[in-house]
What does this fold into?
Amino acid sequence: MDLQWQWRRWPEFDSLTLYHYLQLRQAVFVVEQACAYPDLDALDLSADHLLGWDGEQLAACLRLVPPGEKFAEPSLGRVVVAPAWRGTGAGHALIAEGLRFAAQRYPGQGNRIGAQAHLQGFYGRHGFVTISALYDEDGIEHVDMLRESEAMKS
It folds into this structure.
């Protein structure tokens, strides 16, 4: 697996890249998961967006929301791996790159996520620990998870 990573702020998107990015998010979050909800929200405007490319094909993406916008900590979210890339390790590479950048951008801070409950094991492999009870978000069970920074652990 050799994805090419690209970070963008909202104003930096060209129209074709933005189209591919939003198309992948809609294909998974709205169509595949059969969940009618407003995927686009104001958090997109302040977030950093990570795109993983296989040539001209967008294979994976996520957004990094700044601290204080959704949670007190920075937050990875809208984590998506295209169906053709699932099971290849692309999801783990995506999270690793997201956490690397988050630590660089927001040094000394952890990362809090609202994770789909069935993905607790996946996120646990990256140091996230479940910190909430199950809750319903748009018809899908979620939990909040926290990954402490090294500075928070000492």
